[in-house]
Design a protein that fits this description.
Helix content is about 25%, strand content about 25%. It is of the alpha/beta class and about 325 residues long. This is Electron transfer flavoprotein alpha subunit apoprotein. InterPro entries: DHS-like_NAD/FAD-binding_dom, ETF_a/b_N, ETF_a/FixB, ETF_alpha_N, ETF_asu_C, Rossmann-like_a/b/a_fold.
């Protein structure tokens, strides 16, 4: 099935019946790469029956390769990789791009291993060199330098940070092709799938308010206090890398260079000192509120509102002030 011209392929993550918005950002950058390489700009989308594909075509895709089956309702990377691998080995794209979402970060290395190729993670820019090879740019050494990385094997694979590029603009006149693919492998009987499964997943990148906890939290149960403040403000809970690594909360909540990049209206950092890797993930928030007992903590250098105090005293007061419920101890 290898096309007559080279293929730049985007692996689009399903989000309900729609592609995750990061696919539209990858189409923006992918079009630049495809034009430089004189390649087709293709998308592989695996999802449940009834997936929306028109927006991918209108935003520049040459072809959308579509696999639909109820098995893709489960966010199980092994299922996606197993079904994608045989097709990708036949298609032989030169480049494969995936969004650096929680799912993409888990999917991409498994897919790269299955295809026996390399992977550059969390890229902030991509371009083709004079020989048609993909130059993959990503921050290194706590974002103090930018490293340009090239892959010796094909396909050249990279994950790209969500919200790093603008979305490709829709053009209703753009023509493309939807190619429906059969599942190459049988799938196990998954029984009754819960349609709202993905709605239950945490996506802090969409939250207008993020309340994050760091090393200042004494124990895992103390995240309940931050959850109540986030609930009161209509937001989500975030976390620094240290508390994720300590097992206080899942990686879905991690903010920073090795986690999510968030741009909420309000970011409340509770007990977070402000390491460069954490600041990289939240410094573009509209308003940053910092709560820390250390007046010299780096977080105060980027904060719009700084509160030098004990989060165990400040956060309960904020909860009660904004209409939430928290006991007075």
């Amino acid at each position: 099935m290898s096309p007559a011209q080279p293929s730049i392929l985007i692996v689009a993550e399903p989000q309900g019946q729609q592609p995750h918005p990061v696919a539209y950002e990858l189409l923006h950058k992918g079009r630049q790469l495809a034009d430089a390489r004189q390649a087709s700009l293709d998308v592989l989308l695996c999802g449940t029956p009834g997936m929306e594909t028109a927006a991918l075509i209108h935003r520049g895709a040459t072809r959308v390769y579509l696999m639909e089956d109820p098995c893709f309702a489960l966010p199980e990377e092994q299922i996606f990789v197993a079904q994608m691998t045989a097709f990708l080995k036949e298609l032989k794209p030169e480049v494969i791009l995936t969004g650096a979402t929680s799912f993409g970060r888990s999917l991409a290395p498994r897919l790269a291993a299955a295809l026996n190729t390399g992977l550059t993670a969390d890229c902030t820019d991509l371009h083709m060199d004079e020989n048609g090879r993909l130059v993959q740019t990503r921050p290194a050494f706590s974002e103090n330098i930018l490293a340009n990385i090239m892959t010796d094997t094909l396909p050249q694979m990279a994950t790209v940070r969500y919200q790093e590029f603008p979305q490709a603009m829709p053009d209703p006149e753009h023509q493309g092709e939807v190619v429906r693919l059969p599942l190459p492998l049988p799938v196990p009987d998954t029984g009754v799938l819960i349609e709202k499964l993905r709605q239950l997943e945490v996506d802090i990148t969409k939250a207008s308010v993020v309340v994050s906890g760091g090393r200042g939290l004494k124990q895992q149960d103390d995240f309940a206090m931050l959850r109540e403040l986030a609930r009161t403000l209509g937001g989500e809970v975030g976390a620094s890398r240290t508390v994720v690594e300590d097992g206080f909360i899942s990686k879905d909540h991690q903010v920073g260079y090795s986690g999510h990049r968030v741009k909420p209206q309000v970011y409340i950092a509770c007990g977070i000192s402000g390491s460069p890797q954490h600041l990289a993930g939240m410094k573009e928030a509209d308003v940053i509120v910092a709560i820390n007992t250390d007046p010299s903590a780096p977080i105060f250098q980027v904060a719009d509102v700084g509160i030098v105090g004990d989060l165990y005293e400040v956060v309960p007061q904020m909860i009660r002030r904004y209409g939430g419920i928290w006991p007075v101890l």
